[in-house]
Amino acid sequence: MLKTAIPILASLNTEETVKFYTEKLGFTFHTDWDGYLIFSRDAIQIHFWTTDDPAIPKATGCYVNVTAVDELFAEYKAKGVIHPEGELKDMEWEMRQFSILDNNGNIIHFGQDISEEAE
Question: pTM for the full model?
Answer without folding.
Answer: 0.93
